[in-house]
Design a protein that fits this description.
CATH class: Alpha Beta
CATH architecture: Roll
Helix content: 25-40%
Number of domains: 1
Shape: globular
Largest sheet: 6 strands, mixed
Distance between the termini: 34 Å
Strand content: over 45%
CATH topology: Nuclear Transport Factor 2, Chain: A
Order of helices and strands: HHEEHEEEEH
Length: 115
């Protein structure tokens, strides 16, 4: 989470397994650390002040669940939403990062681009 908030793509990539899977809040999947490196770079360009905050964190076995909020600014419009994240850890690296969030605020901002 610290690497995300720092927009430190190099560290994010180093923390992922080679077969890393990212699952967004609508179920889209991105496979591989290399693909995610490009994905994070693009997301940080779109939302240059993206940040996440965990208010509660629980771990069991190789899984970590964090609950809090995400937010940032897209096209000069600020947004914030409740969010949760699940990380599956394997051999000290993140094998899966899954996001649970209501992305309606983000979709509304992006929809304005098409008007």
């Amino acid at each position: 989470m610290t690497a995300i908030n720092r927009h430190d793509v190099k560290t994010l990539t180093s923390l992922m397994t080679a077969d890393h899977v990212f699952v967004d809040s609508v179920g889209n999947r991105v496979h591989g650390a290399t693909s995610m490196e490009a994905g994070w770079r693009a997301y940080f360009v779109m939302c240059p002040d993206y940040r996440i905050q965990a208010n509660d964190v629980m771990a069991k076995g190789g899984a970590v669940l964090a609950v809090g909020e995400a937010g940032g600014t897209i096209d000069g419009v600020a947004w914030q939403t409740p969010a949760a994240w699940k990380a599956v850890i394997r051999d000290g690296r993140v094998a899966e990062w899954r996001v649970f969030a209501d992305n309606k605020p983000v979709y509304e901002i992006l929809a304005r681009r098409q008007r």
